[in-house]
Structures are given as structure tokens and as C-alpha cells.
Amino acid sequence: MNHFEYRDGRLFAEDVAIAEIAAAVGTPFYCYSTATLTRHYEAMAHALERVKGRICYAVKANSNQAVIQTLAKLGVGADVVSEGEARRALAAGIAPSEIVFSGVGKTRDEMRFAIEAGIGQFNVESIGELDVLNQVAVDLSQTATVVFRVNPDVDAQTHDKISTGRKEDKFGVDIVLAPELFQRAAEMPGIEPVGLAVHIGSQLTTLDPFREAFTRVANMVTDLRSAGHKVTCLDLGGGLGIVYDGEEPPEPTEYAAVVAETVGDLNVELTFEPGRVLVGNAGILVTSVIQVKETATKRFVVVDAAMNDFTRPTLYGAVHAAAPVNENSGSELTESEIVGPVCETGDILASNARLPALAENDLLYLKSAGAYGAVMASSYNTRLPIPEIMVNHAEFSVIRPRPSFEELLSLDHMPKWL
Questions:
Q1: CA spacing 20 to 30 A to 35: which of 69, 169, 230, 313?
Q2: Which residues are known to be catalytic?
Q3: How many CB atoms lie within 10 A of CB 344?
Q4: Residue 418 CA from chain centroid, whole number
Q5: 0.90 exceeded by the pTM?
Q6: DSSP bridge partners of 192
């Protein structure tokens, strides 16, 4: 459920009319619903109560500090993959002990920052990373708490570019190497190994891959304990899918049941890293029609949002349902391509969208745009980055403003020879 709905033919975000936001800030823009963020967190937290799971929000899904702080006030920790994301989480009020530092390519500087900041957990993905982290920790006279991200060689049955748990993917270490890593880490003065982590991909719409991966991890915990190692933590990642275009992903309670079935009797602290499932359906992208272009074969609706503002359709072939902000129930629907003004054939926001008659300045919106939307945007074609808006009941706030062209151009500095 989300809190974007029509009232008397006008789209509202909670109790704010989308057209009123558009009149105030211009288009295009992202709009997020506080009520939806809250509802989705509470649904996940309630489901995971049965396994006493800790939720660390995957900041990469949407890193706006207002979004992070909204979730932080509800009790989340954070899963970060860079120093910048760690700084965002800290600035939004998340305690360093509740931050997990993931990622396959942490630099020495990032490790140093995280240790000095008191980040609670490192998810280590290679022997080389373990050695470097130990060196950094020893130099700082500190100890880094580590779980090893293992690669269980499980196909998540999702898009190829967001599958992360197959043996050919860059993430994690072969699960059979876990005992060797634990032994090596146990002998290091700067490392305290406490458990395993696994994350097999994103936007999973079936539970079988989770069940297979978690079972393999559970078996490895038994093996490690048999070898004399102390295993107190499991990080089971995220990846639960959402509805974009008719998918039927599992409910959080069904996901929690698989967790309980596979690892529930291991007596370990469980960490989960949901991202998309918390924020995806909490956001929309609003855009204005520039013109409608009819060709011999297609109807193109050219809008002022583009692939640089929302790259998921171009990058992943993602399907986002599109609709008018003001309903026009009496108009015949025509199959349309919603495209932006960027000089790329791939600048398509939605294909085969059935839309009514449209005119210049009419407002459209793309659904389920709260995850991997604004956070992946760019200023390609020297287009101004678009603003982000948050709604709370009958109020809205600009949580990231649209910069001016002067501000954008000022980021370039001329060399002295020019």
C-alpha cells in the first residue's frame, strides 16, 4: 500500500495535491510519502519480530537525509557502501554502532574513517580486504568487528545486473572458504570475526532463492562451530521485491517465515538490510508534457523528465506504470511511449503506456520511483538535477532543491592557461 491516490480526479500524496506541488516547485520532481515510509518499515519490523531481527536500511536505495532520518526515528540502523553514505547516515542521526559497512571495494581511507567513527560492523568480501582492514585497525590501535560476506552460488532469479550471489558475480567469497577466513581472522590482532553475511540480489519475487541461500549459510555456521569458531551474528542482506508492474512479491511475514525455518534455531543475532522494499513504493516521479509527437508507427509523449533523472528504465529495462496526475476518464486511451528530451534513443521512461489525450503542460507521474531514482540521477546534457519533495500529512517540504544553472556551472573551474 502507498499513500498516492486520486480524490475527485486529482492525484494526492497523503493530503497534498500533486498539482499544487508542481505549481510551487516546477517539474520534474520526486515526491516521497512519510506515511508510506512509516508503513513499510512497520510492516517489515513487525514481520521480523519473530526472529528478533535488526533492520539496517540500505542507504544506496535512497540516500536523501530526510528519508534516512525519517526511518532512523523509527529505529533503523544503516547499511552503507561508501564513506559518503556513512557520513549521510551519521548526519541523519543513526548511531555508528548501528551502521554496517558493506561493499566490495572499501579503500584504506574509508576503512580508517569507519573505524575512527565507531562503525559497528564491516562486511568483508575478500582475503585481500581482510588483510588491509587488519593493517588499518592495528595502525589505529583498534579492533574491527567483521562478518564475512559469502557467495553461496545461488541464482536470485532476478535481473542479471542486480544478481549478486552467483559464483560469477564479483561479490563475496566462495562459501567454502569461510573456515579458512575465520581461522586467518582469528589470528589477526586487529580483527574480531563474529559471523557471516549473504546478499544474493535485489527485487526478488520468489522465496526459493532466499531459502536456498540461507540454508547454505546455516550449514556453514554449523561447520564453523564444529571447527571451534564462535559465530554470533548473521547478516542476511535484503533483496525482497516490490510491485512495479503486476509482480506478486512475497509478504514480509512470508519472508520472515523462511528466515525462521532456515536459521531460526542457530541462536545468532540477525541483521537485515532492506532498501527498495522500504522506499520504492513511497516515491513517485512527476513530469510535465512538452509535446505529443505522432509518427506513422508510434505516439510519443515528450516530457520534461529524462533518462538522466530516472535511469532505471534505460539501465535495467525497468517497467514503471505511468498515469496522468489529473484523471481524464472520458478520454480514449492510446498506447504511448513516454520519452524525455535527452539526445539518446534510450531516453524512454515508459513504453506501451495507455494514456488519454494530452496537451502541453499536462502532468504525468511514474509510480514506484522512490528507490534508485534520484540517487542515481545525473546532470547529463547539462540538465538541472531535479528536486526531491517530502510530504507529511497536509504539508510538503523541499528536501533537495533544484540548483540554478549558475550553481551547476560553478562546479567547473578553468585551468590557468584558459
A1: 313
A2: 343
A3: 15
A4: 42
A5: yes
A6: 145
Dihedral sign, Cα of residue 164, residue 170, residue 173, residue 175: positive
C-alpha cell read off for 163? 544478481
Binning the chain into helix, strand and coil, the percentages to the nearest 5 are 35, 25, 40
**Residue type for 361, please?**
N
Q: Does residue 131 sit in helix, strand or coil?
A: helix
What is the CATH code for 63-274? 3.20.20.10
DSSP string, 101-112: E--S---HHHHH
**Residue 247 banded pLDDT, cuts 50, 70, 90:** confident
The CATH number for 4-32+281-409, chosen from 2.40.37.10, 3.40.30.10, 3.40.190.10, 3.30.70.100, is 2.40.37.10
The pLDDT value given to residue 151: 83
Burial state string for 65-98 with b = 16 or more CB within 10 A and e = fewer than 16: bbbbbbbbeeebbbbbbbbebbebbbebebebeb
| Ordered DSSP codes for 263-285 | HTTS--EEEE---HHHHGGGEEE
